[in-house]
Each structure stands twice: as C-alpha cells, then as structure tokens.
Amino acid sequence: MLWAAAGVVTLAFLVVLEIAARHYGLPGPVTYQARELIFPPKSGFLLYASMALTMVVLTWRERFIAAGVAIGIDIVFLLARWAAGADLTDGHPFGNGALWVIVGCAVIAVTRRTGRERLLLLKGVGLGLLLVAGRKTGDTWLLITSKTRPTVLDPYVATADHALGNPSWVVGRIVRATGTVGAHALDYVYAQLAVAAVVVAMYQLRHVATERRFPRHHLVRTFLVIGLLGPAIYMVFPVVGPVFAYGADGGHWAVADLWPHTPPPIGTPHPIPFDEITPRNCMPSLHTAWATAIFVHSRKGPRLLRHAGTFWLIATLTATLGFGYHYGADLLAGVVFTLTIEAALRAFDRGWDRSGIHLVAHGTVVFTALLLSYRFVPVEMASYPWLFGPLLLLAMLSVVHGFVRTTALWEPKTPPIPLPEPQPELGVVP
To answer: Three-class SS of residue 152?
Structure first.
C-alpha cells in the first residue's frame, strides 16, 4: 500500500508539473521523458545509471542480457540516425536502449511475474524511473522559478558572503588559474553527480537480488527527497548566483561585471530584476546537498568508496564556488539542509523518539535562521565578519556534530564475543 500510495503521489506531482510547464508553452517532465524513447537523450550516462539501479533486482544472467539488449538497441538507433542524416550532436548518441530496457522490465513484471517477484521487479523499475524523473522534474522546476520570480535576492546573499570572506570570488580566481584542464575536470564532476550517487547506491543495494528485498534506507531516498523539497526553497529565496548577478554571464541584467576579480562593495541590498531564463536555483545549493548525501552514505563502504565520496564532495564544493554558480552562504545552507533531511528519514525508519525529534528540530531551526539572517541582517554580517563568519560556521558545525553524535547512538551495538570460561586444571591423583 505504501509503494502504491507513493506511486500515485509521484504520478500526480508529475502531471501537475506537466500542466504548469504547458502553461508557459514548454513541454514538461512527462513529455521530455517520453521523447527520449526515440530522440537523443539529454544524458545517456544518467539513463544507464538508472538502468543499473533497476538491475539490482535481477540475477547476474538477467543483468548481462539486459545490458546486451540496451547496447544493441543503442547501436540500432545510432545507425538509423546516421543513415537518416540526423544531427548526432543534439544530445547524447546513446541512452535510448537503457530506457527501453527499464520499460521492458516493467512490462515483464506486469505480464510474466506474480506475487512478491512482481512487486520486487516493479520496485526496481520505479527506482530507476524515479532517478530519471527526478532529473526531468528538476529541469521543469528551474523553468518555473525563472518564470514566476521576476526579481532575485543576490545582493543580500553577496553582502552576507562578506562575513565568510567572499569564497566564490577566491575559488573562482583559483579555478581560472588552473586553466582549461582544471575547469574541464571540475565540470565533469559537477555534471555527473547523479552517476556518482548511483555508484554508492549500487553498493548499498548489492544484496537485493539475493535477499529479494530492499534495505529500509539507502541513498536514493535521500537524493529524491532533496530534489523534491529543495526547489520549494528556490521559490521562497530566489537567487541566480554570482556568475550571473555579478559576472559577464548575466549580460545587461547583471549588477556589474565583478566576478571573480572584484568582490561587490558593501551597500544597502535590495531585490533586483532578472531575466526569465536563468534559474533561481542557488539557495540552498542542491549540488552541495547531494554531494553531502553521497559523502554521508559512503562512510560505511570500503576504503575506495569512502575516498571517492570525500573526493566528490570536495570537487563539487570547489566547482560550485569556482564556476560562480553559488555563494559560500548557499553551501552552508545546503549542508544543513541535507543533514536535516537525512536525520528525518533515519528517525522515521527507526521510529520517532526524543533524540530524533531534537536533531531534526535543531537542523530546521538552524536552516531557518541562516535564511533569515541572509535576508534581514546581511549588512551587519558584512560589517562584522570577525563575529558573524565564525557564528555561521559554528551554526553549521553544530548540526554536523549533532548528526554524527546522534546517528552513532542509533547504530546497533554488536554484542561482544564471550570469552571461554577458564577450565579448572585436572589435579594429579596420587
């Protein structure tokens, strides 16, 4: 019943977004996804990552067959487009096969499976399609933010960022100094965040095929909740980012062409009008939120996975700042946002108690306080950076400390192995 209810809610949400997108004369997430059955997909890597999530419920023989079918379909599509003279640079030349395999698994589940096996395969299909739908839903959300929020609050966040030392300007100059090699490497990490998440999720779901059930909590759940709730904050606190509000990418809408060489002067901030194209997707930084979730969920993996999670978090933070997509204040909010969601999901799974309620309430209060401070006291924060800078960092670290301490107490304790009792020595009978 829970899975059925979740499916109905998800479908209704997608339909609402489709209608909203059509209101602005553009296709919505359902249309975009249906088009990728035939037309070149926006991200072939994401579709294959989604297929990999679906395949966690399959046996190894079925996985090899599914992968072979997907590759074969992609080859057929590629040859057909080449023969028809289609533009092969419009999107990725592969990925359609992966989507067809996911749909095929759904058809097999309905027509060839019964009982628990049908439900398990449908869960795998739903998991794969949710990752794809999450990407399409995010694109539609970004469109809605740009159309419904004609003004942005970048001057407030840029002013508050003085308390943190204007990290976007600092890291932006460093990234530019690395040249094209550093920029391309960071861009790849930034763009393939969902694929990194699938790698961690695949490790967490590695026993599904043998145990025939999903674990209670895994990374995909956190990823999807972040993507669902984050855009709502975009609507409340619309921000486009320093590269647009203070850089050349903003064109004539930019306040000035200052990024990344000259931090904006401290003045009286006010909302500024902006175009109807650039997404208002900065507060909080969801790339930071997702990278933080990857880092948290990779902690229980092998050493290589832990190192990869750490690398992806550091590289994502560097990219978000170095490309001018976010302010430092966005990153602090993104970390608090993720840990609060992760704490809520874990508390829900184990049953709400005093520690779980306290942790989620603490994260919610800190996140709200951050947004209110950025909005209503940015000038004071910029005027006294020696006071407000440490306060902002301590507020975030208080949530990090509370999350680490509380979740450690929630971990099941492994009972110690009892030592064998000493046996009395046999005496010698005279």
So the answer is: strand
